[in-house]
Amino acid sequence: MMLPATLTSAATAKVSTPDLIAEQLRRAILLGSIAGGVQLKQNEVAARFEVSVAPVREALQRLIADGLAVLHPIVGHRVAGLRTRFSGNRRTPRAA
Length: 96
Fold this sequence. Notes:
By secondary structure, this protein is mainly alpha-helical. It has one domain: Arc Repressor Mutant, subunit A (Orthogonal Bundle). It has helices at 9-12, 17-30, 42-49, 53-65, 82-85; strands at 69-72, 76-79. It has a two-stranded antiparallel sheet. The longest helix has 14 residues, at 17-30.
């Protein structure tokens, strides 16, 4: 899974940490850097962004709301597959 190395300090002044994490994960998913079905482990994402797991949990909830991630009871968070991301007759992924 290819994730951005860290959060940029200039951007953190105006946007919340969960928003920044969600946006960077969203971009990676939409660009195909993180493929559908890949597990998003909270501890790994937190370590990659150098944050605690709390903002990662919030960011993952935002991705679920956008249709870009799903939460499985035993497995945890995964990137949504194409069927989940595309809705109805729309031809573009659902994103905020």
